[in-house]
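A common beginner's mistake is to predict each chain separately and then try to dock the pieces by hand. The better habit, illustrated here, is to supply every component at once so that their relative placement is modeled jointly.
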Amino acid sequence: MLASETIAVAMSGGVDSSAVAAMLRAEGRNVIGLTMQLWNQRRLAGHAGMPESVQGRCCSIDDVYDARRVAETLGIPYYVVNHEERFERDVVRPFVEEYLAGRTPIPCSLCNNHLKFDQLLIVARQIGADKVATGHYAQVVFDEQRNRWLLKRPADRSKDQTYFLFGLTQEQLSRTLFPLGGMTKPEVRELARRQGLVIAEKPDSQEICFVPGGDYKRFLEAYLTEQGDAPADVSGEMVTTDGEVIGEHTGVHNFTVGQRKGLGVATGSPLYVIQIKNDTRQVVVGKDEELYSRTLHARRVNLISTAELPEPMRVAIKIRHKHQPAPAVIESTGPDEVLVTFDEPQRAITPGQAAVFYDGDIVVGGGWIEASQ
Amino acid sequence: MRRVYLDNNATTPVLPEILEAMRPYFGEHFGNASSIHHHGQETRAAVERSRESVAALLHCRSSELVFTSGGTEADNLAIFGLTREGDHIITSTIEHHAVLNACRHLAEAKHCDVTYISVDGRGLLDPVDVKRAIRPNTKLVTIMFANNETGVLQPVAEIGKIAAEADVYFHTDAVQAAGKVTVDVNEICCDSLTISGHKFHAPQGVGALYLRKGTQLEPMLYGGSHERSRRAGTENVAGIVGLGKAAELASASLDRGNDAKMAAARDRMERELLALEATGLNGADSNSGRAPRVPNTTNVYFDGIEGEALVIALDLKGLAVSTGAACSSGAIEPSHVLTAMGLSRDRAKASIRFSLGKQNTEEDVDFALGLIPETVARLRDLSPTWSKSALSI
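With all components supplied together, the output reads:
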């Protein structure tokens, strides 16, 4: 990396991305701060069930002020770029449609693929920055032997965000910096304190940024109402794994595979959502042991550490962000499609989530879970 | 780094002679213009001299002027002050938000009906449409003098005549016209007119509302009897002195024909930009040619680019220009003016406004012309959609 390189830092106004800007600046690099305006928090305010006041964290005016203050403290140029249209098209709508189709989406991965490492990278290059740096906890390195850019897990395993980054292409990785990859969160906060950044004590954000208070059901209803679509009727039957109808449900979007609470049926033993059938809108419930499966199909697979999978490969796989990687074999079953066979059956494999393949610290690739068997 | 500022429709630098005129009113002449003693008399005299200078610029009586905190307050004062619950108001789709959102508020909170007159592809509205929109309960027509984004001059004299014949109030937001072209309240037959100091080299935070003699206005601020009880609050004396000096300079400048010089610099810049590939002027169409404009503004689209990225790229190289309107976070939204003119969202987002000020030189224009072509070319090279759209042309 040349000192003369210009680097755009994606600044959210939080501690991590602010620390990134401070670190790169301290190294004497040309740094430009950019904040993506992705969602207007006031848009759905006051809609059915949504809070009147702005509560979500995404693109709140306060966060933009914070980012601007940090940029000013560091003496770097700073701009807000508007990507609301793309965010709605590529993240919010798919998020809503996935739920209505009975899946459980991960908007953060879509945002990384379509916004942060696509649109923002384009803007960065257009304004003369060769690379984009973000506050993600992950590492990117070039491997001479494989002649490929590798995505690796960070030093601070508790903050590992590689699960959300599996979609990055070689071109995107070659233009990306994750300066926090070798640091722990306490070190990052300490750095922010030392630099005198106003956001040093700001709490971490946890929830989906555009969903106020984390209540995605209210968000779906408010969004659909705003769009003028009567909230789509996705109600249907609640059935057991034997096919017995035991009740009705109000909509497939209210359920996630593995869910136990709020099923609205009472039986002797605890019941869990085993499967959500998109075509018949049936929610299949059963016992805990019925939640386990050994295989899954992943679609729209992106490979990182290798260009292709000519033969089956042993890996460890995360099927959700907070999942302990489980040993498995992956084999290619078609273009961008992979069959995953776990050594041990896994609980609650959830369509719409990602399956991310690891070889030790190295992210081999990942895909979207289509179905388990 | 050399910095050149071509965003004078957003704000202008306070010219040195204006700053000099204001300086004593921060220090030695500090009195409250309402006080009876020497100090108050001194500042009162300064305020009234300024009022005369502004009156000369607008060709009105000084008693017909109300000093305000700026253009937004003056627009709000006219719109709220001249209407009542249930009135019908006529405005246009291309007004500044100071007018649009004031009208929207009246529609939402005061049961007023608002008609929005649309514009043609040049950004020009047809006075006949205003005439047709008038109803028995129409109270106010508010149409801007010159548009902030395109610089297009609206047919305010004809609209004024129509409003007078119908016995309806006519307000015009002349924020972008004052100081740039001749503004004569009698020629345009308006009942009220807004100006803003910082758009013509006075400081930010001062403006004025012209209010035709005898016009009854409900004030917005209640307090002392300042500004003939039309706007309570201790006068911003230094700001008002700056506004008066700016008005004097603008009157003299118009008399000397400096507007023609500015138009020549603008035209040269525009000519060179329009020679670029897939680039066009907003405010013109192939049938009717160019709409009449203020001399300092040009608005150009560069197909295939994001105006936002171009503004940032140019700023990083030292050239300040603008696109659309900034929302509260500072991000840019596609201009409602350009979309009202029928531009696609893509083309509206690919549009840039260049606006000159009195401080600009021919060298500033050269500097801009040296930067823009290569920057536009780089943005297009990196645009995922440009090559495709180029093929389909």
